[in-house]
Amino acid sequence: MYARSFRVGNKWRTIYGIVARIMGSPVEEIKSRLGVEEVVGSYLKLERAGANLKAKCPFHHEKTASFFVSPARGSFYCFGCGAKGDIFSFVEQMEGVDFKGALRVLAERAGVHLSRFRKEESDSRDRLFAVLEEATQFFEKELGARADARTYLASRGLLPKTSEVWRVGFAPDEWRALRARLSAKGFSDTEMLRAGLIKQSVERKGEPYDVFRNRIMFPIFDSAGRVIAFSGRIFGKEDENTPKYLNTPETELWRKSSALYGIHLAKHKIRERGFALLVEGQMDLLMCHQVGFENAVAASGTALTPEHLDILCRFSENILLAYDADAAGEKAALRAVSAALQKGMAVKIAALSDKGKDPADIIAKSPAEFADGLKNSTHFVKFLLERAAARGETVRERSRLVRAEVLPFVRDVKSAIERAEFVKDIAARLEVREDAVWEDLEKIESSQLPTTNYQLPTNKAQNSALRMLTGIIFCALLLTENERKIDTEKLRKALGAIGAEFLLYISAISADERDTHIFEAEARFGGGEEIPKEVSVLLLHLEKEELERKSVEILNALTVAERGGESEARRKELLTLLQSIRMRIEEIKRLLAE
Ligand SMILES: [Zn+2]
Hints:
Blueprint: H1 2-23, H2 26-33, H3 36-41, E1 47-49, E2 52-55, E3 67-70, E4 75-78, E5 84-85, H4 87-95, H5 99-110, H6 124-144, H7 147-155, H8 160-165, E6 169-171, H9 177-184, H10 189-194, E7 198-199, E8 209-210, E9 215-221, E10 227-234, E11 245-247, E12 260-261, H11 263-273, E13 276-279, H12 282-290, E14 296-299, H13 306-312, E15 318-321, H14 325-328, H15 331-342, E16 346-349, H16 359-365, H17 367-375, E17 378-379, H18 380-391, H19 395-405, H20 407-412, H21 416-430, H22 434-443, H23 463-481, H24 488-498, H25 500-508, H26 511-525, H27 533-563, H28 568-593
Parallel strand pairs: 13-14, 13-15, 15-16
Antiparallel strand pairs: 1-2, 2-3, 3-4, 4-5, 6-9, 7-8, 9-10, 10-11, 12-14, 16-17
Bound molecules: zinc ion (ZN).
């Protein structure tokens, strides 16, 4: 049974591909080219589980795999947290991008040119991306004209190729140069304001002016590689009234608490290398990537937040901070570390000996020294212990500091073994008995940051639908009870008891929900190879319904094609498609009659 439905799955992929080309949907064309196992497999290590594949869920913390992928249906489902969907929703959730972002990521992978499908950019979000892209090109061009700015970048060790990759630019020292360029390109002031590129003076209601003037411009990208904001570093004269770094104010596209600078290029390297390298500034990040630490990312315009961690821990559970010691000890950084430890992530800090120097300068001077610093990294709790112990002058003072600054983090550490390890270290460092440290630890509240909990998607099924769900589960239970041999009599009774409503429900069920039930059934019946006949009958009914709906759609398309005087070839294609669908419906009818 399963082998056949797998073939059908592949056949459908091909048919969807044809529909996509005719109907012009990039989504279907991408789906016809990329399998779910290929896409998910590039992020997670998948293991075979019968007809499906499984992995540890990237969306919630777990020890045993409950995340299943079905190649035949092109979907995934997690029994632990309820995450589910197709390749698009997977990339959306995995990379924290919107649907269009996922579309971009997957289109590139599938070799599908989106421009072929793009209509006029009427969507207002598209307009914002477009205005930011235009601004990026403007800044890039300006940098080309500014030898002094390029000399400055070179003096910091940045190679022209690196600034090209990261699209570094320059904002000229003029009040309305960017605005003039953008309005010449057809963008309105409202659009520029919404993208955070210009601002309106409050007191003098004059013309809006450019936010960024006389700055080296670093575009900030989303995970799909689209520019969503800028960070501008002041160039040349520095005075007290002008901030050294200026970021785009928060907009619809840019939220600094969740955007990670560099994630679009670093994400796969983070997985490959098994850790994320966190740095503070744009220059640090660019220099890291330039010398081969391509797993580097940076929080931009804010300290690391729990939201950043949510993104990072989908790629790896290990983070290495290349911060200078002061920055790592700052409250905001500590909050993030605490959240990371509570999530079960391992947090280390690099041993950067040149105090007060940032990674960019260390790398410019000697990449080897920087690499050594990473190699000699220590666990964050140990770093805190050293820091507290070094500050306390008396034993008493040291103990107090350790209790206040280190123990809360020990509480956060998820692994009991590691916790015991740290208690041992602390006892040794303070020259006290381990029991005493354990006692103190008991009394201490964890640094208690609410970690983000992935909530089970609420079941929107109400009354009758809920009863139907119960019905399906009831059937499944019946099936297992009888050692996978169906007791038709019992099942019929169960279905009969729920009545016609049940049939209505299963015919109206969305593909998404249907998948969930199938995953559940497969899990219950062992990898999907032995789905009992009755369940396959249910599925055939569902498939038939869907095909009938689809054939109506194609009939409509045919009418339109005829009226619109479409080419003979296209009508033929539609007809062929319709024919193959009808054949499958007949086949299902025969199977159901058996
Ligand atoms: Zn999960």
